[in-house]
TrEMBL record:
Top-level class of the enzyme under EC nomenclature: hydrolase
GO biological process: cell wall organization; peptidoglycan catabolic process; peptidoglycan turnover
Residue span, N-acetylmuramoyl-L-alanine amidase domain: 5-142
Source organism per UniProt: Varunaivibrio sulfuroxidans
Protein name per the record: N-acetylmuramoyl-L-alanine amidase
Similarity section: Belongs to the N-acetylmuramoyl-L-alanine amidase 2 family.
GO-annotated cellular components: outer membrane
Entry keywords, A to Z: Cell wall biogenesis/degradation, Hydrolase
Pfam families to which the protein is assigned, alphabetical: Amidase_2
Any one GO MF annotation of this record: N-acetylmuramoyl-L-alanine amidase activity
Record-listed E.C. numbers: 3.5.1.28
Length: 223
């Protein structure tokens, strides 16, 4: 379905789209979310909105810059909107009754994500959640989101066979930074990573298992 949002602008010339950012809407209903994403006064949007029944709403053409990431950072860049495709998943979020993402919604997300990856050179570690790029502000798509399933479908990364990796604080920060995270507020960064890759242990502590998962991910990245 198409419900074009007016909230977009042009991407800078020759900007390469190399990120896919996933969100939850964090609103009480799909109608509320769609209304807000298409409201000029709100000043927010995404390229796609996926309802819980799997219906996909195309809001902004991929060649345009949607306004979904806000103040964000990834791998040294703050121009996240300029270089990304943003996908919103209807879910009330932590404020309104956070719940697992339904099967129909996940199937649609996998289908549309594969299509996006076929059109743009997006490396696996640049498939991220809003909380990964804005860890002090955002928690979405959160610990109920099935990142492992996406990785199995060829979308993003997931650590396999994690070996605990203890490290002193300075080394731990360097490992997180090496993967792509901003580390100004390190506990918030660790929580964002754990929501993505260790959703059963969102503590903000860079324990050996968390660092082991991160080192395992780095081993999956082509040199």
């Amino acid at each position: 379905m198409t419900a074009l949002s007016p909230n977009f602008d042009a991407r800078a010339k020759d900007t390469q789209i190399d990120m896919l950012v996933l969100h939850y809407t964090g609103m009480q209903s799909a109608r509320d979310a769609l209304t807000r994403l298409c409201d000029p006064a709100a000043g927010v949007s995404a390229h796609y909105l996926i309802d819980e029944d799997g219906v996909v709403h195309r809001l902004v053409d991929e060649d345009k810059r949607a306004w979904h990431a806000g103040v964000a950072w990834w791998r040294g860049s703050i121009e996240i909107n300029a270089r990304s495709i943003g996908v919103e998943l209807v879910n009330p979020g932590h404020e309104w009754g956070y719940r697992p993402f339904p099967e129909a919604q996940m199937r649609s997300l996998i289908e549309i994500s594969r299509a996006i990856l076929s059109r743009h050179p997006i490396p696996a570690r640049n498939v991220v959640g809003h909380s990964d790029v804005a860890p002090t502000r955002k928690t979405d798509p959160g610990e109920f989101f099935d990142w492992a399933r996406l990785a199995e479908a060829g979308i993003g990364l997931w650590p396999v066979g994690v070996t605990p990796h203890p490290a002193p604080p300075d080394r731990a920060r360097a490992i997180f930074s090496g993967y792509g995270y901003e580390i100004k507020n390190f506990p918030a960064t660790v929580r964002a990573f754990q929501r993505h890759f260790r959703p059963d242990n969102v503590t903000g502590q860079a324990d050996p298992d968390t660092l082991g998962a991160l080192v395992g991910l780095l081993d999956l990245i082509p040199s």
